[in-house]
Prior knowledge:
Layout lengths: L1 H9 L4 H17 L3 H10 L5 H10 L6 H10 L5 H11 L5 H8 L2 H10 L5 H15 L1
Helix pairs in contact: 1-2, 2-4, 4-6, 5-6, 6-9
Amino acid sequence: MFKELDNLLSAETTVDSWYDDGCVIASEILSEFSSSDWDILSNQVLSKPIEWQRKIAYCLDNKCSVHELNILISLLSTNDEELFEICIDTLRSYSSQESKNMILDNPQILQRVNDLLPTASIPVRKMLEDFLAKIRS
């Protein structure tokens, strides 16, 4: 299944086709992942191109599993602001206490979110504030 996902995320698509169809297909593929697929994804995600990483980050709230959460947390180490924002946006759907604790155990995440707040655009600021509110609730 990983190879199928990799091919999909590596394909050149328009933004519209990705958000209309690609992310739905990717979510369906992720829902069929085995433990070994998750291991492969975890081991390869940081070596993939930034656009590939953005696409996967957008799709990782399929089941809000610990596999997905760990991958999102690893992607937060990026210097790419758009990828970071996508990851934070996706993390807003992780509402279990276990998920919140894993995020809170990484204080650099909250620090970076707080650092972005003053200069963020209004929509991004609202998303970041919502993330912080959900994590602290």
